[in-house]
Amino acid sequence: MAIPASFRKLLSGLPLYLSCLVGMNAMAAKAGHSVGKPPASYPLDEVRVQVTRQPARGGATMQRVRLSGSGSAMLERGGHSLPFRYDRKDLMTLLNAFYGMRFFEMSADTTTRYSVVLQDDGTVRTSMLRMSDASSTQVCFSVASYSKCVTYSSDPPGELESVVQQVFDEADRLAKGHASGDPAPR
What we know:
32% of the residues lie in helices and 29% in strands. By secondary structure, it is of the alpha+beta class. It has one domain (44-179): 2-Layer Sandwich (Mago nashi protein). It has a six-stranded antiparallel β-sheet, with helices on one face. A two-stranded antiparallel ribbon has the order 5-6. The model is unreliable at 16-33 (pLDDT under 50).
């Protein structure tokens, strides 16, 4: 049985395609991570986590917590910056929470709400609603050349809002302790 010429041409390019595919997978494995995910291993000192609460128009002031793997941290609120020390164990607990809730697989922006409407002619039309004046929260993780941010407003994904609240509560506690001269955690 003879193979048609068009099919032979297709088959002749298959080895090149497969070698490119295998090569990309090998490069990702060598780099230690999958595309869109953090590296499989990385120095804790290179980790940066930033949590920002942006108030609704006319609301309270912006709040931000910056945490680094080295233990230094900053609470920004009302135009003031309060440095404090953040225990590396607590940062590891936070990272484990991110991995546990599959933070790195979450949608980058959930502030836009989608719905569909059935038109009179039977066509389904997608509708988007974004409240540009609504408050929002952004959680960012970065290490080396990898970065992941998740932004949400009134409907936080999964367990993320409770983790965010814990980060702000702990930052408040530690920043107040640092300002009063209490020893910083190790």
